[in-house]
Amino acid sequence: MKEIILIKNGELALKGLNRRSFEETLARNIQRAAAPYGGVKVWRSQSTMFVTPLEGTDIEDAVEAISKVFGIAALSRAAEVPKSMEAILPAVCEYLNDELNDAKTFKVNAKRADKKFPLKSPEICAETGEYILERFPHLSVDVHDPDLVVTVEIRDTSAYIHRQPIRGAGGLPVGTGGRACVMISGGIDSPVASWMMAKRGLELSAVNFASPPYTSLRAEEKVVDLLGKVSEWAGEIRLHIVPFTEIQEAIRDYCPEDMLTVIMRRYMIKIAQIIARKDGALALVSGESVGQVASQTLRALECTDAAADMPILRPVIGMDKEEIVTIARKIGTFDISILPFEDCCTVFTPKHPKTRPVLAKIIEAEKALEAEEINIEAMIEKAVKDTRLTVITTEK
Ligand code: ATP
Ligand code: MG
Fold first, then answer.
1. Of the listed ranges 76-90, 129-143, 170-184, 294-308, the one predicted with least confidence
2. CATH 3.30.2130.30 spans which residues of the chain?
3. Given 3.40.50.620, 3.60.21.10, 3.90.25.10, 1.20.1250.20, which CATH number is that of 179-392?
4. Could you tell me if the CB of 146 is within 6 A of ligand 1?
5. Is the C-beta atom of 187 inside 6 A of ligand 1?
6. Whole-model pTM above 0.85?
7. Fold classified for 2-169
8. What is the CB-side half-sphere exposure of residue 199 using CA atoms within 13 A?
9. Full 3-state SS string of 202-213
10. Which residue among 339, 345, 355 is best mutated to probe the pocket of ligand 1, counting the most ligand atoms within 8 A of its Cβ?
């Protein structure tokens, strides 16, 4: 029996005039997600999206991949059969055999997009229901709260018998909201922040600051692995790895110890912005959450924000660690995040960081770095120039 996947759009329905371009982006994203498993064809008809697996594509794999595509409210597998009750009735019992065996109650739901079909919807329901009851005598009909809803849909070219729908990833199709650049560490929060912004339709680039030899190659691989998980939902991510050692050492050597973290974060922002702009991003994304650590108090955030002239999106800002961890587990990043590799944020951490840094004093302290013999501007230029690009995809 030929099987296809039917897609129910999420918020898309609300987007009025943009609807067409949203749907085109969604269709492209679906194709891309399923490509590593052999690929699918996507087509639209009468406001429904149909996905047909190509020869050799396993439908289970395709459903799994597509369940991570943002912009989809629900998806269901369906059997495609000829448009006659002689074909539909036995196909319903064969296709939904296991579900019909497991259920105690059911109802039939008919949709008739082809108004020329000889039976009307209530007649399709009645005939199908009767046919099922004869063959599965343990079942009874319950129209209010059935265990199983059997959907028969008559369209222009074929009839479709639906499985129970599964929940889609929700959100908006990646690529409909522009690009943002994630500041990604090896921790728990920033991969979750990345996923949350992709869910709102943003394409992602990423910046990671590495400080070899204080940070190891394994720390870098960890970031690549984390983004690999995120890209199952977010699509391709361009990761820029910035050599940060020289700048970090300069900050350590010339700035007051209790201001190190905030100053370091300000330079991260300055560099991330240069890379973000080159990459076409309009905002930065970070995994900060108020009060989590010393550099995430309102005073510290004020100092970080002042280094930026593009918006910094902080989707986990009001979330508890537990809530963040729940998402990290769901998207598969948690087990990678807890692997113990040094992040550049954890080298040279002051024993007593200022929890209430004063912006004017931070800016004053940074002046030391601008002295001619240190020349922080030249260091920034060099760090940007020596940045390495890795493209993260789910392609095998
Ligand atoms: P995470 O769990 O994401 O590492 P965190 O709670 O450890 O976050 P910090 O280490 O203070 O918090 O970092 C706050 C944010 O700064 C991170 O969420 C991330 O967006 C950014 N960040 C930290 N370290 C790096 C790094 N090495 N490269 C790029 N961005 C970083
Ligand atoms: Mg961290």
1. 294-308
2. 2-169
3. 3.40.50.620
4. no
5. yes
6. yes
7. VC0802-like (3.30.2130)
8. 17
9. CEEEEEEEECCC
10. 345
